[in-house]
Amino acid sequence: MPDDSLERLAPALDTVQLDRSAAGEFLYSGAHLCKYRLQLDEMQRIALQPKETVDLMHSISQSL
Fold it and tell me: Is 19 helix (H, G, I), strand (E, B) or coil?
């Protein structure tokens, strides 16, 4: 299946799975999905690029 087919299916499959020590929970509501989508978008926006991550880890290991 081409990647674009998966992207077209994704909205129909949107679910947030929360794992907790006592039990797991699945969230399907639009409000919950929007909240988690925004959080993931923000994490992706502020995350380092892979090379920057490796460089940071190397720098930290050298300072130990």
Answer: strand
18 closest CA partner among 6, 31, 30, 32:
32
Tokens of 61: 């290991």
* pTM, full prediction: 0.57
Can you say whether the dihedral through the CA atoms of 38, 40, 43, 44 is positive or negative? negative
Burial pattern 11-21, b for ≥16 Cβ within 10 A else e, equals eeeeebeeeee
Check pLDDT > 50 for residue 1. no
* Phi and psi, residue 57, nearest 5°: -60, -40
